[in-house]
C-alpha cells in the first residue's frame, strides 16, 4: 500500500435524518485513479463528499492521506480539490482570472506568484481568451475547465470529481476526462455514470443503496454492475 | 451596473484600493450634496466622463454603464416628472445615475481580490468586537458575484412559466426564485469550503 495516497474508510455510515446514505463502508484505496459508480441515490456523492469534509460520518472513521477530514478540515482542503457536477455552482468570483486566484487566498503567496500561477492555469486549460471574461458567461465546457483550473492552481494531491462531465457535450466530456484521467499527476476519485470513463481508472467502487457492493478491477466491477442493471 | 474588471495600467488601476474607495465615496458624496442645478449636473457629468477617460475606458464602456442603469433612471424620472418641475426631476435623477455610473468605474478598475484585501484591512479594527474581517470581505465578493446568477434564475423562471403558459404573477415568480437562490447559496457555501476558504 502506498501510504502517501491512502484513503481509508473503516465501518463508515452516514445518516441524513432517518435515511442512511452510506451504510457500514470499509475500504482501503491507494490507486491513482479511482472510479465510483452506482445508480442515483446509491451513496456515490456522499462517499465523495466525505473525502473533502463536505459531509461527515455518523459512525466509523475516515482518513484521507492520514488526515481526519472533519478535525483537520482546513489542512485537508488544501490537499484535496473538489470538482462539482454543476459548473455554475462552483464559480465564486466574477471573472475567470479572479475565480482561479480565489483558490490561493490566505496561502501567503505574493501577488506576483498568484498572477503567475493563474496565468499558467489559464494557458494550460485553453482559457487565454477569457481571462477577464465574466465566468458565468462561459460555455458549460469552459466553466468546467475553469473549475478544474481553480482546483489545480492550489496544487492539491487528490482531486475528487463528482460527475464532472454530467452536463457536458461529447467534445467537452472528452476534453475534461482526458485532463482528469491522462494528464494530471494527482490521485483522482472520479464519481461517474459514464462507464467508459470508469473503465479507464485503476480501480472501481460500485455503490448500491448506500452499501459498497464491489471494489476491484474496473472491467469486472462494471460487468457485474451492468448485469444487475439490464 | 457592477462592471467587470477591465485590466489596464491607468492611474485609477494603479491606485491603492483603499485610497481609491475613499476617493470614490468622497466624489459620490460631493455629487449627492452639491449637484442641484443643471450646470452642476453638466459639471458632474464632465467629471465622471473624465474619470472614465483617465481609466482608459472608451465611450462605449461608459454608454454600456448608462444602458445598465436605464431602469433606475426610468423609475426615478417617471414619477418625479408627474410631481416636480422637469428641471428638478432631471437634476435629481441625473445625480443618482451619475453616482451609479461612478460606482461602476470603481469596479471596472478594481480587481475583486484587491477589494477583498482592502475590505479585510478596513474591517480589521472591528475584530476585537467579534467581527471577522475575512467573512465580511467574502460576503461582499459573493454578493457581487451572485447578482448575475440570480438575474439568470429570474430569466429561467420567466421562460419556464411562459413555456407552460402560466400568466405572470408576483408569487409564482418569487417562490421559485427564492428556492433557487437558497439552493445556490448552499452550493456556493460548499464550493467556498471545498476550496479551503473558511466562511
Automatic annotation (TrEMBL), chain A:
SUPFAM superfamilies for the chain: P-loop containing nucleoside triphosphate hydrolases
UniProt entry tagged with the keyword ATP-binding: yes
InterPro entries for the chain: AAA+_ATPase, ABC_transporter-like_ATP-bd, ABC_transporter-like_CS, ABC_transpr_CbiO/EcfA_su, ECF_ABC_transporter_ATP-bd, P-loop_NTPase
Domain annotation ABC transporter: ranges: 7-230
Record has Transport as a keyword: yes
Homology family: Belongs to the ABC transporter superfamily.
The protein, known as: Cobalt ABC transporter ATPase
Organism: Agreia bicolorata
Lineage, uppermost ranks: Bacteria, Bacillati, Actinomycetota, Actinomycetes, Micrococcales
Automatic annotation (TrEMBL), chain B:
Record keyword Iron-sulfur present: no
Xref: Pfam families: CbiQ (PF02361)
CDD domains: EcfT (cd16914)
Entry keyword Membrane: yes
InterPro entries with a match to the protein in the record: ABC/ECF_trnsptr_transmembrane (IPR003339)
Spans through the membrane: 21-42, 62-84, 96-116, 136-157
Location in the cell: Membrane
Topology class, membrane: Multi-pass membrane protein
GO cellular component, one term: plasma membrane
Protein name according to UniProt: Biotin transport system permease protein
Keyword list, A-Z: Membrane, Transmembrane, Transmembrane helix
Source superkingdom: Bacteria
Amino acid at each position: 500500500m502506498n501510504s502517501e495516497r491512502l484513503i481509508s474508510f473503516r465501518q463508515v455510515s452516514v445518516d441524513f435524518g432517518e435515511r442512511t446514505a452510506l451504510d457500514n463502508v470499509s475500504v482501503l484505496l491507494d490507486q491513482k485513479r479511482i472510479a465510483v459508480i452506482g445508480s442515483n441515490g446509491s451513496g456515490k456523492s456522499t462517499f465523495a463528499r466525505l473525502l473533502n469534509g463536505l459531509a461527515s460520518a455518523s459512525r466509523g472513521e475516515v482518513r484521507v492521506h492520514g488526515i481526519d477530514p472533519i478535525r483537520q478540515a482546513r489542512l485537508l482542503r488544501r490537499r484535496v480539490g473538489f470538482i462539482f457536477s454543476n459548473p455554475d455552482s462552483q464559480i465564486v468570483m466574477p471573472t475567470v482570472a479572479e475565480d482561479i486566484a480565489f483558490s490561493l487566498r490566505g496561502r501567503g503567496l505574493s501577488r506576483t506568484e498568484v498572477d503567475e500561477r493563474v496565468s499558467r492555469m489559464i494557458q494550460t486549460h485553453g482559457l487565454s481568451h477569457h481571462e477577464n471574461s465574466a465566468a458565468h458567461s462561459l460555455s458549460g465546457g469552459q466553466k468546467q475547465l475553469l473549475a478544474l483550473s481553480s482546483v489545480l492552481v492550489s496544487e492539491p494531491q487528490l482531486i475528487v470529481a463528482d460527475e464532472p462531465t454530467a452536463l457536458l457535450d461529447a467534445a467537452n466530456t472528452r476534453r475534461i476526462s482526458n485532463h482528469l484521467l491522462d494528464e494530471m499527476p494527482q490521485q483522482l476519485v472520479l464519481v461517474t455514470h459514464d462507464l467508459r470513463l470508469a473503465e479507464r481508472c485503476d480501480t472501481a467502487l460500485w455503490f448500491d443503496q448506500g452499501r459498497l457492493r464491489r471494489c476491484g478491477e474496473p472491467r469486472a466491477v462494471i460487468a457485474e454492475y451492468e448485469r444487475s442493471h439490464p | 451596473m457592477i462592471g467587470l474588471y477591465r485590466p489596464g495600467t491607468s492611474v485609477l488601476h494603479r491606485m491603492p484600493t483603499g485610497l481609491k474607495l475613499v476617493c470614490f465615496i468622497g466624489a459620490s458624496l460631493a455629487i449627492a450634496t452639491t449637484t442641484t442645478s443643471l450646470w452642476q449636473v453638466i459639471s458632474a457629468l464632465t467629471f465622471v466622463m473624465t474619470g472614465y477617460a483617465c481609466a482608459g475606458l472608451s465611450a462605449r464602456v461608459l454608454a454600456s454603464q448608462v444602458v445598465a442603469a436605464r431602469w433606475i433612471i426610468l423609475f426615478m424620472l417617471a414619477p418625479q416628472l408627474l410631481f416636480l418641475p422637469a428641471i428638478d426631476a432631471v437634476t435629481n435623477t441625473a445625480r443618482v445615475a451619475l453616482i451609479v455610473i461612478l460606482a461602476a468605474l470603481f469596479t471596472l478598475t478594481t480587481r475583486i481580490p484587491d477589494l477583498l484585501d482592502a475590505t479585510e484591512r478596513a474591517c480589521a479594527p472591528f475584530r476585537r468586537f467579534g467581527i471577522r474581517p475575512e467573512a465580511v470581505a467574502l460576503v461582499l465578493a459573493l454578493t457581487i458575484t451572485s447578482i448575475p446568477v440570480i438575474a439568470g434564475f429570474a430569466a429561467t423562471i420567466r421562460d419556464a412559466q411562459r413555456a407552460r403558459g402560466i400568466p405572470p404573477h408576483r408569487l409564482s415568480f418569487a417562490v421559485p426564485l427564492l428556492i433557487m437562490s437558497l439552493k445556490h447559496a448552499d452550493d456556493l457555501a460548499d464550493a467556498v469550503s471545498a476550496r479551503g476558504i473558511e466562511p
